[in-house]
Amino acid sequence: MCDVKQNIAKLVEDLEIERIHVPVVACGIGTNARDAVKAIQAGAKEYIPLPPDAELIAAVLEAVTEESNTMIASDPAMKNVMQLAEKIAPSEATVLITGESGTGKEVMSSFIHRKSKRKDGPFIAVNCAAIPENLLESELFGHEKGAFTGANGRRIGKFEEAHGGTILLDEVSEMHPLLQAKLLRAIQEKKVTRIGSNDEVKVDTRIIATSNRNLEASVQKESEIEADAIFLQESDFTQGASASAASPTNAPSAAGVSPSAPTVENTEGVEILIGRTISDVERDMIVNTLDHCLGNRTHAAKILGISIRTLRNKLNQYKDEGVDIPQVG
């Protein structure tokens, strides 16, 4: 809010130059219609007469804040990403958004939530990189009283808090591989288990995740993301399109998977695969991991967390189904 006597046009211009996207509300003593018109013509969203009326101010701020949540893009590449997000939003797709820090991944996540059927439900954001590893499991899945030192009472996790809505897992690639396995179960089975409990809790939560890393390149380069992350990146999050309002190379990319069967395609011709069976995902994970290990079954089994015998049985099954199995070398 600013005084109507201030140079509102200059203020709006300066905000745009600094890329600060906040609505400007002018205020002034009395109800001078001419001042109100000038303020709005200069770029203010609303005009509030003083002395202030608390209910009026609350209503105006709510209105302009809701309006400011609308994403605006002029760059053609970013428009493509927004069109893709709008196609994915109404589904129950699990979505991965990748891009460098500062490219608006969390804003895009909120946009998808607001465009979804869950818009009236909660939107819970969790920064996986900011929470210590030993506390993140409790933060996500909750704990029972006495589960560990300091657990003085039951606490529900963020997945339960987001029931009926959306949970954002910001920087999911920073999560420890062992915790990724539990996350994978939450994605697949829609169930979580609090620390210190054996009882499963059903959760109706849509998952949106973000990462500032190229997960595929990380896996191929040095296996820094283990089997569970490979499963997440290769299976539950299928790569999509990328763009940015500033530069197409800096932008968030969005992708999704849902229980339905069709494919969605953006204007760049990049396909988003929507819907795959667990067996298909498992097969691709195993075969891709073996290929990454240059056919070395011992190494592949270690990464996958299964025995060599189980891997051999799976590969024999896939071979009988006509799948090309990577060989050593």
UniProtKB/TrEMBL annotation:
Localization terms from the record: Nucleus
Origin superkingdom: Eukaryota
SUPFAM superfamilies the UniProt entry points to: Homeodomain-like, P-loop containing nucleoside triphosphate hydrolases
GO biological process, one term: phosphorelay signal transduction system
Keyword list, A-Z: ATP-binding, DNA-binding, Nucleotide-binding, Transcription, Transcription regulation
Gene Ontology MF term list: ATP binding; sequence-specific DNA binding
Pfam families linked to this entry: HTH_8, Sigma54_activat
Stretches the record annotates as Disordered: 241-263
A single Gene Ontology CC term: nucleus
Biased amino acid composition, Low complexity: 241-262
Coiled-coil annotated residue ranges, if any: none
Record-linked SMART domains: AAA (SM00382)
Protein name in UniProt: Uncharacterized protein
Source species of the chain: Cyprideis torosa
Native organism taxonomy: Eukaryota, Metazoa, Ecdysozoa, Arthropoda, Crustacea
